[in-house]
Specification:
Blueprint lengths: L2 H29 L3 H27 L4 H29 L14 H14 L5
Length: 127
């Protein structure tokens, strides 16, 4: 079996799988009912899908210099997507843009209530 054929087959599988992962993320953004579910759909499959697509691109290019560039692109996504999802989740929680009946456990509620009580006790109006 020719090594070129194996590389082409592996990159084809990576491209199709990466594209399907990205498609699943897009469908999840459209179909999921609340902010927290959409946030999960936007981050988890998107990062893996991008990794697979960048790997397929690197295999198809067949040059060494493209790998550092692709690695930087993927690391940038890997570092920024969780942070942005966390910030969107916090903003959604604070502005009550979530469905509490869809949460299995609200672990943040006790902390928010404690902080609000402390703020009231200190006389801080939050302005």
């Amino acid at each position: 079996m020719n090594p070129e054929t194996v590389i082409d087959a592996v990159s084809a599988v990576f491209m199709v799988t990466g594209a399907l992962m990205s498609l699943a993320a897009a469908i999840g953004l459209l179909r999921f009912p609340d902010l927290m579910s959409r946030m999960h759909a936007a981050t988890k499959p998107q990062v893996l899908g991008l990794f697979l697509l960048l790997t397929a691109l690197g295999l198809q290019m067949r040059t060494w210099w493209v790998w550092p560039v692709l690695l930087v692109a993927w690391l940038f996504q890997l570092l920024t997507v969780p942070v942005s999802a966390h910030m969107v989740g916090r903003a959604g929680y604070r502005t009550k843009h979530l469905h509490p009946e869809l949460l299995s456990a609200d672990e943040l509620e006790a902390v928010v209530q404690q902080a609000a009580a402390k703020r009231r006790a200190d006389g801080d109006t939050g302005r």
